[in-house]
Design brief:
Number of strands: 4
Shape: extended
Oligomer: single chain
CATH architecture of the largest domain: Roll
Distance between the termini: 27 Å
Number of helices: 5
InterPro entries: DNA/RNA_pol_sf
Length: 205
């Protein structure tokens, strides 16, 4: 995938952005350790007795849109449900009613994202093999994107994606540009973690 060197991103504030395509050779990949997964670390999923029991009944004549807590008028105007104009008036109102009724499952902002309910999933524990904690020095944040990076970090803390820690570990991370060519995405280098966790034999059926 295209990567953007952080120092090039800094220079892009005053000039054009330089793209760098970088691929990791297969022989440099760091893979998890092939070993047995202890039983207490297996993920247990619990399905509700009747997943359809609490679903609201579809209206035969859906009402016109009215703003909700998340599905606001601004978001309604910005994200029309029928851009191509394929739906009839009643079909369009039905889709809008569905989005409004289940608006809590949509996340327009980072802090609106949720997590798996503990009714269906227990907190996931990460098994590790015996290893020495790693503390890796990160590359400096270029001054040109310093404020942007701080804002990304604050947003993730508010959304509880990141939280304070007194762990013995520290991994590297870096920034890449998103497809909009202006927003930043933080990428964490967890290759050292792969050397300390058991591999899983997941199959796609």
């Amino acid at each position: 995938m295209p990567l953007y060197h952080p120092f090039l991103i800094s220079a892009a504030r005053a000039s054009r952005l330089v793209e760098v395509l970088k691929y990791k050779p297969v022989d440099r990949k760091v893979r998890p350790v092939p070993t047995t997964l202890p039983e207490e670390f297996r993920i247990v999923r619990r399905a509700p007795a009747d997943i359809l029991a609490d679903l609201p009944q579809l209206p035969l004549h859906p009402p016109s849109f009215s703003p909700g807590l998340r599905y606001t008028q601004e978001r309604y105007d910005e994200y029309p449900v029928d851009i191509a104009g394929w739906l009839s008036e009643e079909e369009r109102r039905l889709v809008e009613w569905l989005v409004l009724t289940h608006e809590h499952v949509f996340a327009w902002e980072e802090n609106e994202k949720g997590a798996f309910t503990r009714e269906l999933f227990d907190p996931i524990l990460l098994p590790t093999i015996e290893h020495t904690p790693w503390v890796m020095k990160n590359i400096p944040i270029p001054p040109g994107i310093y404020e942007d990076v701080c804002q990304v970090l604050k947003t993730k803390i508010e959304a509880q994606v990141y939280e304070p820690s007194n762990s013995s570990y520290r991994s590297k991370w870096f920034c890449v540009l998103k497809k909009d060519k202006k927003s930043l995405r933080l990428v964490h280098d967890l290759q050292p973690l792969n050397t300390a966790v058991p591999a899983t034999a997941d199959l796609i059926c």
